[in-house]
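Sanity check. The docking grid for magnesium ion depends on where the pocket ends up, so I'm generating a full predicted complex first rather than guessing from homology. Inputs follow.
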Amino acid sequence: MKQNTPLGIVIAVGNQKGGTGKTTNSVHIAAALGLRGYRCLIVDLDPAAGATRHLGVPENSFAGSLELLTTDETVQTLAITEGMPKGVHLVPSRPQLSELDVVLSKFVDRTCILDQPLALARQLYDFVFLDTPPSAAAITTVAAYASSEWFLLSAFPHPLSLGGLTEAFNDIADVRARRNPELEVLGIVFTNVDGRATRLKAELDAVVSEAMPGRRFSTVISQAVIIPMLSGKGKTLFQLPKHDRIRVARQYKQLAAEVEHRVLNRDAYLSGELEELPRLSVAPVVVADELDAALAMG
Ligand SMILES: Nc1ncnc2c1ncn2[C@@H]1O[C@H](COP(=O)(O)OP(=O)(O)O)[C@@H](O)[C@H]1O
Ligand SMILES: [Mg+2]
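Predicted complex below; grid placement will be based on this.
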């Protein structure tokens, strides 16, 4: 639980492909850790500003990651704290972030642009989530991988994602070799999982066990129509009444518990000796309940 000295853990949430759950995972893992009493910051590093919208911040209304990377403003002056889920602050993004390359001085080393902003963030927060854009070559992606200690890989099981996973593993190996040997894989989470796609899941499991044994999270996040509905409304699952009855909300709490368990027991995890948390017993989903709850939110 929360300690007086912040843990100061930085987690890059990545996958070079778009639409693989990066934003949904950043927002909900942070929100679930916030409910556990941790101080969390999400830095939206994507000009598409998915996390910003998901947290209900109107587009273009605030300075954010562009200023964080190009001015003297800090996470302290830029983080939005009002109207956020419990324990969560947000450095928002907006489309102008795509002009970062032009705005940055020619003489700045682009891989280091997050070092200084994150130094302060580590002093203030337990967990900092870097939500990256869907391109491994984007300046913010490279900078996020270069200055994090953990990498959380988010993947949708899809026949095409097999190749994407291998590409992601290669990117991680490349960052470690060339730039940031400290970067460790916190876990691979499969999300948007259709319970019927068992063969596909088994194939993906095999790819992960081969390339990154022991690194998959045991929690998988089910496919749930409520998630796109809520993101469109700028809300998280945990803002729903009776969210404990909603399967994906419980899965995100379990996933957050796994994140906490691995981070707090880093050495045992990295040496393959960490025991997994007991599996969550999942109540049967009642889809109508989820939809009713979403509709009740307006
Ligand atoms: N578990 C899920 N069930 C159904 N839809 C999901 C789930 N997770 C994410 N989505 C939806 O899939 C789309 C892509 O997810 P997103 O988190 O934005 O991915 P990324 O940030 O990698 O582009 C979004 O519309 C999101 O609402
Ligand atoms: Mg995104």
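Relevant for the grid: The chain has a mean pLDDT of 92.
Also worth noting: The beta strands are 9-14, 40-44, 88-91, 127-131, 150-155, 184-190.
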